[in-house]
Amino acid sequence: MRCLKCGQKACLEIRRHHAAFCPEHLLEHLHKQVARAIKAYRMFTKEEKLLVAVSGGKDSLALWDILLSMGYQAHGLYIDLGIPGYSETSRQKARNFASAKKAVLHEISLREIYGVDVGYIARKNAKTFCSACGLVKRYIMNLAAASGGYDAIATGHNLDDEAAALLGNLLYWQTGYLRRQSPHMPAGQGLARKVKPLCRLGERETSAYCLLQGIDYVLEECPMSRGTHTLLYKELLNKLEASAPGTKDQFYLGFLRTGRSFFHNRIEEPILKPCTKCGQPTTDEVCGFCRQMSRAGLDPLALRAAIVDSVGSGV
Ligand code: SF4
Ligand SMILES: [Zn+2]
Ligand SMILES: [Zn+2]
Fold it and tell me: Among 77, 78, 129, which residue has the most ligand 1 atoms within 8 Å of its CB, making it the best to mutate?
């Protein structure tokens, strides 16, 4: 297997692009793919400040590294949810990366603020771990972006993540999610802009990127992801991709090109208003986060104060 660009020994084959690359040209290819996504979906400019949601895993660290190397103003946000056997290691990986790159990393820890982890909040709400966790993370990211004056939140969702999410949304005809599924969700109604610059890269490519760049990331996936539908969808899509390379690209990028506008034009955007407790946008009187925290006997405003203190003063 030879590099498409220089004919040297290739280190990775990307079958959907009918290409293989040596280390040098693979890095060049991956940078180009990210630059192409940023440009195609008009995600952000060099003048804007980005808040990168960093989990300590390969995708978010690869994203942070790529954005920094491209000259973007990218600060990290690590949210410590207190997931046993995972959060401590992933937090350390995020810290190591930030200190090696001399990059700004904001940290928010549920345990430090409330003395509980996200599992406690999930149990008190009779919810799955992931459902409680997702709500907490979205709330923190939005508030942190506003507090710190960031123009956009960048997350490390890759092509595999997005294709799996799309499959799930289609299987259950989640028309509201299909309307919103995009690598660029503009700011509005109190919600920060959200972007996914890795949406053209597969998981193998972000792993290879970290390996080549010597980025030390947490190898294990979050233990709570085991047995979730998302993993099953990824397996199914990988099988399709193995027999017909390019299927994932066709499915997801094709949806962005042609399918999404169908939902976008027909499904109305929900009207949001400020939560009467915390002021964050919601469709109800009190937002989902405040209700979730109240059911767990926790003060939602304590988190708000910690975020303002950490992120607001750090920029
Ligand atoms: S897998 Fe679930 S619990 Fe783990 S970080 Fe993701 S959403 Fe949270
Ligand atoms: Zn080469
Ligand atoms: Zn609220």
Answer: 129
Residue 72 within a domain: yes
Residue 22 to residue 252: CA distance in whole angstroms: 27
119's CB contacts (< 8 A; 6+ apart) are: 82, 83, 84, 129
Distance between Cα 225 and ligand 1 center (Å) = 6
User: What's the gap in Å between 110 CA and the centre of ligand 3?
Assistant: 17
Global confidence as pTM? 0.96
Dihedral sign, CA of 182, 207, 222, 138?
negative
> Two tokens at 258?
């042609």
Q: How many residues are there in the chain?
A: 315
What is the best residue among 225, 230, 233, 292 to mutate for testing ligand 1's pocket, by most ligand atoms within 8 Å of CB? 225
- Lookup result for tokens 């919103």: 180
Q: Whole-angstrom Cα distance, residue 280 to residue 266?
A: 26
Q: How many domains does the chain have?
A: 1
Give the number of the atom of ligand 1 that is nearest the alpha carbon of residue 133.
Answer: 8
CATH number for 72: 3.40.50.620
Q: What residues are neighbours of ligand 3 (ion), with CB under 5 Å?
A: 275, 277-278, 280, 287, 290
Is 3 part of a structural domain of the chain?
no
Taking the mean position of all CA atoms in its chain, how far away is CA 167?
17
**Within-domain flag for 182:** yes
Q: What is the per-residue pLDDT across 255-307, written as a single tens digit (0 to 9) for each? A: 999 999 999 888 999 999 999 999 999 999 999 999 999 999 999 999 988 99
**Beta strands, E only, 164-285:** 184-185, 193-195, 273-274, 281-282
Q: What is the whole-number distance in angstroms between the Cα of residue 293 and the centre of ligand 3?
A: 9
